[in-house]
Amino acid sequence: MLKDQLKQIRSSKRLSAATVITALTTDFFALHGDGYQGDDPAVTVGFGRFMRQTVLMIGVNRGATIQQRLAYHFGAVSPAGYRKVNRGLKQAAKFHWPVISLINMPGAAADVAAERTGQSQAIAATIRQMGQLPVPNIAVFLGEGQSGGALALANCNRILMLGNSLYSVASPEAVQAILKNRRQELTAYLPMTAPQLLKLGLADQVITEDQHTVQRLQRALTTQLTELQTWSPAKLKQQRQAKYLALVAPSD
Amino acid sequence: MSHFPKKGLWQQCPRCHRHVHRLEWGQLRICPYCGYYLRLTAKQRIQQLTTGNDFIRLPKLAEHTVPFTFPGYQQKLAQAREKTGLKEAFVAGQAQLAGATFILGVMDSHFMMGTLNIVVGARLRQAIETAKQRKLPLILVIASGGARMQEGILSLLQMNTVLAAYDALNAAGLFTLNILTDPTMGGVSASFAFAADIVLAEAGATIGFAGKRVIEATSHEVLPTDFQTADSLYRQGQLDAVVQRSNLTAVVSQLLRLH
Ligand SMILES: [Zn+2]
């Protein structure tokens, strides 16, 4: 059931971006701030060693404790957060670091300050920079991702999804609202689960969730990165565009 | 043709509540009493920004395609088509104004609030690519509530694909101009809406990412009276100009002359 899945994804016990970064990388250094307005703790952007090279990691933080959740605004990334991501992406392009984004986030920051400080432009810039990266990028859905913010962090060569993760146009609750009272589950009408998106061709790999999830994820990332790193910058950019264009092309 | 006269010759102004005759609303649909702008249809926008009848629709614009069977969606589409006389929420063609030739694309808020879906995205990319091929400026009149939920994830993926096409047009050195009209929200605002060389907004337009009701419900903040208005975005440095509707043709002509 979608309801149970959401509960699990949003639980404080869910595998977090911070846990994955700690497990996968050594020598991790986190960037601080957008160099302009402030630092958004809802997203960690930093670099560390993975597969005997430096990689840029982007991880959305929902927080486990109440204190963390409040401090991280429940994982709603603000414009300053996207601008910090964009700083990181610039360095990744400059130093040829692969990029891995870890996604479990609610919709965009819904508050006055986010709108006033250029939320739309910040997200658009992240979409652009991710799409134009001359290095491989891989998105990992640890939980849910929705709306423009998740799209920006998932504009990648590869999308990996944990078995119970979700990727949708808007929050399932918001989509449910226009569906009104239907008996069937929302997922019967719109693909958003990992297996559904794998079938659609948007997700490239679904990671089984068990006590070895992190190891499975590590293996999957290693395999995918090993392949992508043989590609030229032009091919990496071209593959991103071609992949999404093929998915969105109107069919008759 | 406008499909609104069906409602009758008189229409109440949403702001001052006076009953205004169709002739008084005029071609630009401005309330003669309080200056309120009714939302224009794609056809009215094209008339406003084109000399004479110099608008040649792009051939073979992408057509209707529904990827998933979302309950009630087919009926909604049928109603929107009936109401607007359009097949989808975006129309594009080659236009002329002030002696300049350009590609003009217009979103129509009367068609499911101009929401971004597979066909609208495909047509946008078509318009952008046509401008690139013909080496012409691109002018987009934007009016959209964001991604169309009924087409799910494929609506969301219009954001990156349209933006990538838009960026390629900019890289080709062609002039791009976006006119943000009421409303410019969500997935449209956070992708190509601000990607133009020059971004104008029509006075009174609501422009933002998250909707006001969502923000109120989530943040429990009292929204400032000028929140997400064209004027406030202008003050924050996010727009090049806020233009009165009656002045828009002149400003667009000026920008075309200078490029
Ligand atoms: Zn009035």
UniProtKB/TrEMBL annotation, chain A:
UniProt enzyme class: transferase
Classification via InterPro entries: Acetyl_CoA_COase_a_su, ClpP/crotonase-like_dom_sf, COA_CT_C
Protein name according to UniProt: acetyl-CoA carboxytransferase
Keyword line: ATP-binding, Fatty acid biosynthesis, Fatty acid metabolism, Lipid biosynthesis, Lipid metabolism, Nucleotide-binding, Transferase
EC number: 2.1.3.15
GO MF annotation terms: acetyl-CoA carboxylase activity; ATP binding; carboxyl- or carbamoyltransferase activity
Transmembrane feature ranges: none
Organism whose genome encodes this protein: Loigolactobacillus rennini DSM 20253
Pathway assigned in UniProt: Lipid metabolism; malonyl-CoA biosynthesis; malonyl-CoA from acetyl-CoA: step 1/1
Residue span, CoA carboxyltransferase C-terminal domain: 2-227
Family annotation (Gene3D superfamilies): 2-enoyl-CoA Hydratase, Chain A, domain 1
Catalysed reactions, semicolon-separated: N(6)-carboxybiotinyl-L-lysyl-[protein] + acetyl-CoA = N(6)-biotinyl-L-lysyl-[protein] + malonyl-CoA
Entry keyword annotation includes Ribosomal protein: no
CC annotations in GO: acetyl-CoA carboxylase complex
GO terms classed as biological process: fatty acid biosynthetic process; malonyl-CoA biosynthetic process
From TrEMBL, chain B:
Catalytic activity: N(6)-carboxybiotinyl-L-lysyl-[protein] + acetyl-CoA = N(6)-biotinyl-L-lysyl-[protein] + malonyl-CoA
Pfam family, one: Carboxyl_trans
GO terms, molecular function: acetyl-CoA carboxylase activity; ATP binding; carboxyl- or carbamoyltransferase activity; zinc ion binding
Keyword Transmembrane helix tagged: no
Domain (CoA carboxyltransferase N-terminal) ranges: 9-259
Keyword Cytoplasm: yes
GO cellular component, one term: acetyl-CoA carboxylase complex
One BP annotation, GO: malonyl-CoA biosynthetic process
EC code: 2.1.3.15
PROSITE patterns, A to Z: COA_CT_NTER
Cofactor: Zn(2+)
InterPro entries per UniProt: AcCoA_carboxyl_beta (IPR034733), Acetyl_CoA_COase_Trfase_b_su (IPR000438), ClpP/crotonase-like_dom_sf (IPR029045), COA_CT_N (IPR011762)
Signal peptide: none
Residues reported in the UniProt entry to bind Zn(2+): 13, 16, 31, 34
Family: Belongs to the AccD/PCCB family.
UniProt protein name: Acetyl-coenzyme A carboxylase carboxyl transferase subunit beta
